[in-house]
Amino acid sequence: GGMCVVSRARHRALDREISIKVLQSVERAFEQQLLRFEVEAKSLARLRHPHIVAVHDVRTATIAELRLDVL
Fold first, then answer.
1. Is the pLDDT of residue 34 over 60?
2. How far apart are CA 37 and CA 23, in angstroms?
3. Residue 6 — φ and ψ, nearest 5°?
4. DSSP conformational letter for 1
5. Segment holding 32, helix H or strand E
6. Phi and psi, residue 67, nearest 5°
7. Are 61 and 11 in contact (CB under 8 A)?
8. Smallest Cα–Cα separation from 18: which of 26, 6, 28?
9. Which of 67, 62, 70 has the alpha carbon at shortest distance from 21?
10. Taking the CA of residue 60 as centre, how many other CA atoms within 13 Å lie in the half-sphere pointing to its CB?
11. CB 67 within 8 A of CB 20
């Protein structure tokens, strides 16, 4: 825990509120942390449940970022 920050944002292209989960320091992140982040994104993307947020996008090139529904 404690490796990510979650913020509320507005997705400009979709014109809606989302949450963004960002790995705090990709430059200093270990390969294992980036892999865990990507596995989490893929796992969440497969789930469909009213109490689980939907994943809209994941990026790990320059920053590790997961775009989610707002709770």
1. yes
2. 8
3. -110, 130
4. -
5. helix 31-46
6. -100, 125
7. no
8. 6
9. 67
10. 14
11. yes
pTM (global) more than 0.70: no
Q: Which amino acid type is present at position 58? A: V
Q: What is the pLDDT of residues 6-27, one digit of tens each?
A: 889 888 888 988 888 887 766 5
Length of the chain: 71
Task: Decide: 41 and 58 in contact? Cβ < 8 Å.
Answer: yes
Q: Are 2 and 28 in contact (CB under 8 A)?
A: no
Token readout for 56 is: 């809209």
- Give strand ranges (E) for the chain: 4-11, 16-23, 55-59, 65-69
Residue 1 confidence (pLDDT) above 60:
no
Which residue, chain included where needed, has tokens 């994943």? 55
